[in-house]
Amino acid sequence: MEQHSLPATDTKEEISLKELILKFQEWWRYLLSKWLIIVIVGITGGALGLTYGWLQKPKYLAELTFVLEEGNKSGGLGAYAGIASQFGIDLGGMSGSSGVFAGDNIIEFLKSRLMVEKALLSEVVVDGKSMTLAEYYIDVTDMRAKWVKDTALKNLHYPLTQGRTTFTLKQDSVLREMYNGLLMSNLVVEKVDKKLSFISVNCISGDEFFSKVFTEHLVKEATTFYVNTKTKRSKANVDLLQSKADSIERLMYKKTYSAALSQDLNRNPGRSVASVETEVTTRDKIVLQTMYTEVVKNLELSKLSMAQETPLIQIVDTPILPLKKQKLGKLKGLIIGGILSGFLIVVFLILRRIYKEIMS
Question: Are 71 and 214 in contact (CB under 8 A)?
Fold first, then answer.
């Protein structure tokens, strides 16, 4: 009689699947036998999570969102720039951008040490008293408690009257420490969406007022610095043209008075010299009027160019008190603590049994 048998590979697969099921049942029975340990550890972890959620101090989130619109680099001013260049006037900003806020550079710029220090050294009013934000940060973070034994730091302050260039080595060192701490634990700058131009600046700290004010001052200092940098060359041109226009205007007024005086003297037919003076003065006045017209025209073009270059920074959302609290909470602490401790004890029991089986 012909005997039929399953292929060897199918038999091995069947045995392998059977062994897997049996092994799973074995491990399940083993963990069930340790249910008391798992429950005790889970309850203990839940209790620890509950305690942590109860004792944890809340942190406050301040979020400011803004959108940046670059100024028009050329637009309809290209033709005017060509005309102005014929008179030796550079309207500026027609061919490029500084690129400080271009792309993701804005994120690094807002997190730069220069901007954070400018924000920390800006003025705030706390309970009717003016002080630097750095001074307030030292108070709310209890940094002075760590400086009790250090006499050099014990009396360290950041007064409003002291300039940045006059800081001592200790002041610079502490300011750098503040910057590093804020960058690592408090400040978050990111794009809301990579396809959009919305920038979100977040500050998370244990003090509600500091979170709000630091976020606002950081964005204010950064945008002011950026606008001044972008319009620096154009403003210099405007100031130069304004100075020339004022100077020519004064000369033109003098020539006008001189021409009027010469005309009065010229009424006497015997004064031929007065007639010549009148002619020269009138000619100079016409020349000055022509120059003044051209300078004023270029001045207005330069002002228009600066207005076109000035970037528009639109604040979309600002932090408003009371700020959003970030806290684990008692219920979340209980659940997370219980689940996490239960998972860890299960992993520990499994690894311990595997170790014993290997060693035996």
Answer: no
Distance between CA atoms of residues 326 and 225, nearest Å? 32
Quote the CA–CA distance of 20 and 352 in Å, as a whole number: 20
Cα-to-chain-centroid distance, residue 189: 6
Whether cis (ω within 30° of 0) applies to the bond prior to 322 is yes
Q: Give the chain's length.
A: 360
pLDDT in tens, 267-290: 555 544 455 566 667 777 787 788
Give pLDDT, residue 264: 57
- Name the residue among 155, 161, 200, 156 with its Cα closest to residue 178: 156
pTM above 0.90, yes or no: no
Q: How many CB atoms lie within 10 A of CB 6?
A: 10
Nearest Cα to 215, choosing from 127, 321, 130? 321
pLDDT of residue 263: 60
Contacts 24+ apart (CB under 8 A), 284-287: 284/255, 285/252, 285/255, 285/256, 285/259
288-325 confidence digits (pLDDT tens)? 788 888 888 887 887 777 777 666 778 888 898 888 88
Question: Tell me, what's the pLDDT at 95?
Answer: 43
CA diameter of the chain: 157
**From CA 158, how far away is CA 173, in angstroms rounded?**
12
C-alpha pair distances (Å), 176 with each of 12, 78, 117, 124, 171: 67, 45, 8, 20, 9
- Please report, for residues 73, 78, 81, 177, the alpha-carbon distance to residue 95 in angstroms, rounded to integers and kept in the order given: 7, 10, 11, 40
Q: Is 73 helix (H, G, I), strand (E, B) or coil?
A: coil
Judge whether residue 63 has pLDDT over 90. yes
Kindly tell me if the per-residue pLDDT of 98 is higher than 50.
no
Whole-number mean pLDDT of the chain? 79
β-sheet bridge partners, residue 171: none
* The pair of three-digit structure tokens given for residue 321, joined into one six-digit string: 């008190």
Give the CA distances from residue 55 to residues 142, 255, 328, 329, in Å, rounded to whole numbers and listed in that order. Answer: 19, 83, 10, 9
Q: Provide the token pair at 117.
A: 């220090």
Residue type, 141: T
Q: How far apart are alpha carbons 210 and 137 in whole angstroms?
A: 7
